[in-house]
From TrEMBL:
<keyword id="KW-0812">Transmembrane</keyword>
<dbReference type="InterPro" id="IPR006028">
    <property type="entry name" value="GABAA/Glycine_rcpt"/>
</dbReference>
<dbReference type="InterPro" id="IPR006201">
    <property type="entry name" value="Neur_channel"/>
</dbReference>
<dbReference type="InterPro" id="IPR036719">
    <property type="entry name" value="Neuro-gated_channel_TM_sf"/>
</dbReference>
<dbReference type="Pfam" id="PF02931">
    <property type="entry name" value="Neur_chan_LBD"/>
</dbReference>
<dbReference type="GO" id="GO:0034707">
    <property type="term" value="C:chloride channel complex"/>
</dbReference>
<keyword id="KW-0868">Chloride</keyword>
<feature type="transmembrane region" description="Helical">
    <location>
        <begin position="326"/>
        <end position="348"/>
    </location>
</feature>
<dbReference type="GO" id="GO:0005230">
    <property type="term" value="F:extracellular ligand-gated monoatomic ion channel activity"/>
</dbReference>
<feature type="transmembrane region" description="Helical">
    <location>
        <begin position="446"/>
        <end position="463"/>
    </location>
</feature>
<keyword id="KW-0325">Glycoprotein</keyword>
<dbReference type="InterPro" id="IPR006029">
    <property type="entry name" value="Neurotrans-gated_channel_TM"/>
</dbReference>
<feature type="domain" description="Neurotransmitter-gated ion-channel transmembrane">
    <location>
        <begin position="268"/>
        <end position="460"/>
    </location>
</feature>
<feature type="signal peptide">
    <location>
        <begin position="1"/>
        <end position="20"/>
    </location>
</feature>
<keyword id="KW-1015">Disulfide bond</keyword>
<keyword id="KW-1133">Transmembrane helix</keyword>
<feature type="domain" description="Neurotransmitter-gated ion-channel ligand-binding">
    <location>
        <begin position="61"/>
        <end position="260"/>
    </location>
</feature>
């Protein structure tokens, strides 16, 4: 038993010794890790995790009144501006405005935001700090709608340098007014401007200027529009005066757009020209085919009216005449005149047939002559008509009881009668053209196309 008790005591002491060594080893390892973490913490010190009293705040925002501009009471604070244009989204002729997305950046110095730094590195903040400090109150003149993008958070960046210089950047989409002149539409060029200005501070308090002159405007080479060719961008600046508040610095982003004409050639000019040419087809249709010529004329007139209405529906209601209006209305007049031409031909044909019918009733006995060869003695007969009447005597053509009331054609083949007949024909050429309805269509086939081609030459030479 004593031997067994001694063995148990030895084992117990051995276990205590092992546990004591393990405990000392764990404590030594913990102290080593604490020292190592302390070394890393000192090496990468994060100021955001330190306790911040008012005197230890890096920017000392709460120590100053940021409702006033920097250097209040002194000279005007210069604020530089530059713009990077991301996209030119749309141009609306109906609303006379444009929409663009851009990065707007401001540069100024505020000594109240200066902080000590051994590395001279800037600090970057998001939009939450903007509400606590002073920033320029720039707005867009003549803007209709504008907003700052907020996906996934407000697209605002504030960068502060140790010497107090500040960079303030925003991503904005703005829709602004553009005064357009449509007198040469669609062969026109438009110049639009986006204007920036301080809302509250006059030129005595804030001097707004382009930071790098014309280099202050950067554009993406991929910017394009479906209906316009972007010719150039440039910047300008000037003073704007308001009678109630004074003078303000105003910055301008100017860009010139030239309209693509090919779309309007396909949608407007070619259809209008084809309708005019289609109206000329009626000149080759028989004048007795009344349904064909009338339906063709009415169809072309209604089609031209539809084209004019469609063009004006996509345009603002301006009070002056546009270039496209001149072309369309002249084309409409040509189409309408082709309808009037057939109305004249039809009327003269009816008058001529009425006269021939009366003549046949007045001279019922033609003695074998065709009705179309019977004429009154008015000097308006052709040589072929005269030759066809040769050989017929006065007694054969007219009854005896009407000899005292009417004069009829008595034809002889002598040289004297032929010469007098030719003199009568020369004196009534104009009346023969009117009476001969085929001649009106014949001359219209040349006059209408020639006049329309001449109009096109003048139109495209003036507006191109």
């Amino acid at each position: 038993m004593p031997y067994f008790a001694k063995l148990l005591l030895f084992i117990f002491c051995l276990v205590l010794l092992v546990e004591s060594r393990k405990h000392r080893r764990r404590r030594w390892t913990s102290q080593l890790e604490v020292q190592r973490a302390s070394h890393i913490y000192k090496k990468n010190h994060d100021v955001t995790k330190t306790w911040k009293g008012k005197t230890e705040q890096l920017l000392r925002v709460d120590d100053h009144d940021f409702t006033m501009r920097p250097a209040f009471g002194g000279p005007a604070i210069p604020v530089g501006v530059d713009v990077q244009l991301e996209s030119l989204d749309s141009i609306s002729e109906v609303d006379m405005d444009f929409t663009m997305t851009l990065y707007l950046r401001h540069y100024w110095r505020d000594e109240r935001l200066s902080f000590p730094s051994t590395t001279n590195k800037s600090m970057t903040f998001d939009g939450r700090l903007v509400k606590k400090i002073w920033v320029p109150d720039v707005f867009f003149v003549h803007s209709k709608r504008s907003f700052i993008h907020d996906t996934t958070t407000d697209n605002i960046m504030l960068r502060v340098f140790p010497d107090g210089h500040v960079l303030y950047s925003m991503r904005i989409t703005v829709t602004a007014m553009c005064n357009m002149d449509f007198s040469r539409f669609p062969l026109d060029s438009q110049t639009c401007s986006l204007e920036l200005e301080s809302y509250a501070y006059t030129d005595e308090d804030l001097m707004l200027y382009w930071k790098n002159g014309n280099e202050s405007l950067k554009t993406d080479e991929k910017i394009s529009l479906s209906q316009f060719l972007i010719q150039k961008f440039h910047t300008t600046s000037r003073l704007a005066f308001y009678s109630s508040t004074g003078w303000y610095n105003r910055l301008y982003i100017n860009f010139t757009l030239r309209r693509h004409i090919f779309f309007f050639l396909l949608q407007t000019y070619f259809p209008a020209t084809l309708m005019v040419m289609l109206s000329w087809v009626s000149f080759w249709i028989d004048r007795r085919a009344v349904p064909a010529r009338v339906s063709l004329g009415i169809t072309t007139v209604l089609t031209m009216s539809t084209i004019i209405t469609g063009v004006n529906a996509s345009m603002p209601r301006v009070s002056y005449i546009k270039a496209v209006d001149i072309y369309l209305w002249v084309s409409f007049v040509f189409v309408f005149l082709s309808v009037l031409e057939y109305a004249a031909v039809n009327y003269l044909t009816t008058v001529q047939e009425r006269k021939e019918r009366k003549l046949r009733e007045r001279f019922p006995c033609t003695c074998g002559m065709p009705h179309s060869k019977t004429m009154m003695l008015d000097g308006n007969y052709s040589e072929s008509d005269a030759n066809s009447l040769a050989g017929y005597t006065r007694n054969q053509m007219v009854p005896e009881e009407e000899k005292q009331e009417k004069m009829v054609v008595h034809l002889a083949m002598s040289n004297e009668s032929n010469s007098s007949r030719k003199r009568g024909l020369k004196g009534h050429v104009g009346l023969r053209i009117i009476q001969n309805t085929h001649a009106i269509d014949k001359y219209s086939r040349l006059i209408f196309p020639g006049t329309y081609i001449f109009f096109n030459l003048i139109y495209w030479s003036v507006f191109s």
